[in-house]
Amino acid sequence: MSDGTADILVVDDDTELCELLEEYLAREGFTVEAVHDGESGLERATAGGHRLIVLDVMLPALNGFDVLRRLRASSSVPVLMLTARGQDVDRIVGLEMGADDYLPKPFNPRELVARIRAIHRRAEHAVEAEVEVLTVDDLELHVASRAVLRDGEELSLTTAELGLLEALLRGLGRVVSREELSEQVLGRRFSPYDRSIDVHVSNLRKKLGPGPGGRERIKTVRGHGYLYAMERRG
Q1: Peptide bond between residue 192 and the one before it cis (omega within 30 degrees of 0)
Q2: 103-129: per-residue pLDDT in tens?
Q3: What CA–CA distances, in Å, run from 228 to 156, 175, 177, 204, 208?
Q4: Virtual torsion, Cα 178, 114, 122, 44, nearest 10 deg
Q5: Beta-carbon neighbour count of residue 180 at 10 Å?
Q6: Is this structure's pTM higher than 0.70?
């Protein structure tokens, strides 16, 4: 496809893999556009219209990290990165730069579909939610519009960061375990070797900044999980 209306944009220089994914995802009800280098991928991704980007790290012309960094300057479209198996550093770097999830190669296409559906469920949950605003001190999360305001200024969060913030705000005053966050936010069971939640929390902390008076917004409860400990207004 070339009109930017495909559900999923796959950016990978492995043409055989792209053909396989196009066929497999089509059977799952998705429309797919595939491009094979970083520059073309960035151009198509920034054109808009895709619901999700599947982005390989190793790309000619412009690598996946460069594509993601430039894309995040103007777009919060969900991005699932493909990394080489065993390259933990690549996965962590991708998440720190704003990827919503990652999948190591080689992978089972069924696992890719599961990850894609989990990301879509998070986005659809926010769109379909009743008009609701979660307010904590100077922070507002407008659930339906997926807007986050800090002292009236809108912040740019990824889908995963939004889901994480919502889970923590709904669990205000209690520790939310990594297991619970992984299932709610990433749509999969928690693995002790998966640092995705920790990296997303780190990114979220940076974007939210300190609370009023310099207080820490999200506290780590070692061995248990995370706590959004600030009190609600009123």
Answers
A1: no
A2: 999 999 999 999 999 888 876 655 555
A3: 19, 8, 12, 12, 12
A4: 120
A5: 16
A6: yes
